[in-house]
Amino acid sequence: MKKTRTAAYCRVSTTSxxxxxxxxxxxxxxxxxxxxxxxxxFVGVYGDHGKSGRSMKGRAxxxxxxxxxxxxxxxxxxxxxxxxxxxxxxxxxxxxRHLAQLGVTxxxxxxxxxxxxxxxxxxxxxxxxxxQEESNSISQNMNWSRRQHLEKGQPWSKPRYGYRSIGKxxxxxxxxxxxxxxxQAFYMAGMCHTYQEIADELTRMEAEDGDGRTWKKTSVVSxxxxxxxxGNYLSNKxxxxxxxxxxxxxVNNDGLVDQIxxxxxxxxxxxxxxHEVVGELVKRGTLGGxxxxxxxxxxxxxxxxMKLAAxxxxxxxxxx
Length: 320
Known about the structure:
The chain is α/β, with parallel strands linked by helices. Helices cover 46% and strands 16% of the residues. It has 10 helices and 11 strands. The strands form 4 sheets. It has a 5-stranded mixed beta sheet with strand order 2-1-3-4-5, sandwiched between helices. Strands 6-7 form a two-stranded antiparallel sheet. Helix 6 (176-190) packs antiparallel against helix 10. The protein is elongated.
């Protein structure tokens, strides 16, 4: 009797072994289950550890499983639950349909669903919807938790260049050689150098430090506009929106969600006065390098910026 060539797909979205149905437990369980079934031939266990279920992109093992199904190596796929397989309804249904067209059956243990059975696709659509709602609930819980930390002055997000985060309270401390690069950028901007001139100098400084980072105009502008360098933290500057087809993208937060400003969250690298006048130069387009003529008001701003930059540079030298 020909055995059913069987594989299993396992996934956990965190590296924590305390999560129910941890990665190793799932893998061992399904290998043992398949090998002990006389009607099944063990093909393998495909597992993505620490991968989010919201999108199938980036889940190498799931994509390898699908490829092996396309190559005719697998007849049956076992999975603990539909939420382990996918939480994006569109991708989930499309993938199951694709596997069905290849003659591959998928069984979900928790829901008792076999895609080969009559009415399986209708049930799959219902369960996929439920799974996506579970994912939305998890995201909401995570957002609530992040907000609680923010209200305590403890942002979770990655620190800006010039800082690193330490401890459970996510305190930002200064990385001194990066701080020198930041100060140089604001000094040169205050002295009305172009973005390209600033980027070239910062890249040279990085090469001397052995970092090897290359600076570009966009990253220079982002630095000069960041409130982080006067010691403040602003949450949710960008937000992720989910499209109707289940894909997502990051967009500027123009009132989509609430923001929290934490003033004095960490040590400032430049003065508020220099930061503000540099911000004016950026807003007016003074530093782009393509203009040769400026209004009287712009020239006054440039003169004020140069005086502040020179004064601040002297203060930095005295402090070093």
